[in-house]
Amino acid sequence: MTHRKTIGVGLISVGWMGRLHSRAYLAAAQHYPEIPVRAALVVAADPDEKSREYATDVLGYRESVSDYRAVLAHPDVDVVSICSPNFLHEEMALAAIAAGKPFWIEKPMGRGVLESRHIAEAASAAQVVSSVGFNYRNAPAVEHARRLVRDGALGTITNVRVAFMADYSADPLGALTWRFKRDLAGSGVLGDLLSHGADLAQYVVGRIVSVTAMTETFIPQRPLPASGAVSHFSRGTEDAPMGSVENEDYAALLARFAGGGVAVLESSRVSVGPRAQYVLEVYGTKGSLRWDFQRMNELEIADDLSGFRTVLMGPGMGDFARFQPGAGTGMGFDDLKTVEASLFLRSVLENRQYSASATDAWAAAEIVHAAQTSAETGAWVAVGETMTQHGPSQSGLTDDVVS
User: Fold this and answer.
1) How far is the C-alpha of 343 from the C-alpha of 360, rounded, in Å?
2) How far is CA 182 from CA 97, 188, 211, 273, in A?
3) pLDDT, tens digit, 9 for 90 and up, residues 72-96
4) Locate the GFO/IDH/MocA-like oxidoreductase domain: which residues (predicted)?
5) Each residue of 120-139: b (16+ CB within 10 Å) or e?
6) Contact predicate 395/356, CB 8 Å
């Protein structure tokens, strides 16, 4: 019988993502039984009373509190999930590091590159394991794409296209929540969606070293929110007072990789039509591939001149076999977070970085910062060298493009 170490979980913020983290911790033991660890839901923090009740009555936390500091001080908490709004991330992450608690945080990790750098450097100095919610890299199709690129199956990589297009803010009556305020969210779609796209490009192909960018805000005014409106989907009314949107709805980047390839990256939160059309395309001298999150369990591959063929994900591709017995029965978004939870727990258990780290999040923030600078100046901007001080993470994100 396998002896399992119990790892006590503390949660900060019981919203949609906090609830998903909680389920993923528990599911990880079922899908990864060889990892000798079992998560125990200890305490959840949220200022909202109904959310605290949900944490104990539905999710199964032993207790709930209103102050996140009580989570970090709890003697039975070994790891903490930080699922709060962006403007609280730095404070909470630094407090977790000071308490010696490995943390799993959602992206963007900071409101900008400075906050992200502070968190990454503090975690590195304290040797605290971290995990950041770049879950799309855990899709079996993405893992398979990475293997094809790294094995040279596509030849020399010439160009990459990334398009993260969504409609969650396409309604002009969508309320002016914290996500549209620069002092609370930082950037707009750059940090919220294109950071995912930049991470995918780097994870599959290699390090981005320079960018030129443009950004636009297409819905400049939104109704002020009613009390308690905090989500992407909160809606105002036509007669509500209006306020200004302070960050970008749309961004487009040209980029260069360290190994010589080039890329186009585009993202929108106000597109009418795409719901969550998150696309990665990689083109090489011997072949190409295309993946769309809306068809998450498929990968289009072209390795000759007869065009793309669709390959259904199955056992042997990423962690697919952990969830389904054969191709044709697909994985879902929640499963990607379970993979993420397993990587985090394994990282904590072995004190080695397997999950996307705070340094990886800093690397994505450097691309966002370079894009913002370019959009203001119109110039090509070099991406900050985050890895020169800390080295590549075990996740392999920072490997140069394969040629």
Assistant:
1) 14
2) 26, 8, 22, 26
3) 999 999 999 999 999 999 999 999 9
4) 143-290
5) bbbbbeeebbbbbbbbbbbb
6) yes
Question: What are residue 246's phi and psi, to 5 degrees?
Answer: -110, -5
Q: Are 31 and 345 in contact (CB under 8 A)?
A: no
Give the total residue count for the chain: 403
The CATH code that applies to domain 137-390 is 3.30.360.10
Supply the CATH classification number for the domain 5-135. 3.40.50.720
Lowest mean pLDDT among 43-57, 139-153, 213-227: 213-227
Nearest-5° angle of CA 336, CA 181, CA 359?
45
Q: What is the largest CA-CA distance in the chain?
A: 64
Domain definitions of the chain by residue range: 5-135, 137-390
Structure tokens given for 133: 């919610």
Q: Is there a contact between 80 and 21 (Cβ–Cβ < 8 Å)?
A: no
Give the single-character DSSP code of 174: B
pLDDT in tens, 141-171: 999 999 999 999 999 999 999 999 999 999 9
pLDDT tens digits along 321-374: 999 999 999 999 999 999 999 999 999 999 999 999 999 999 999 999 999 999
Find out whether 280 and 291 touch, Cβ atoms under 8 Å. yes
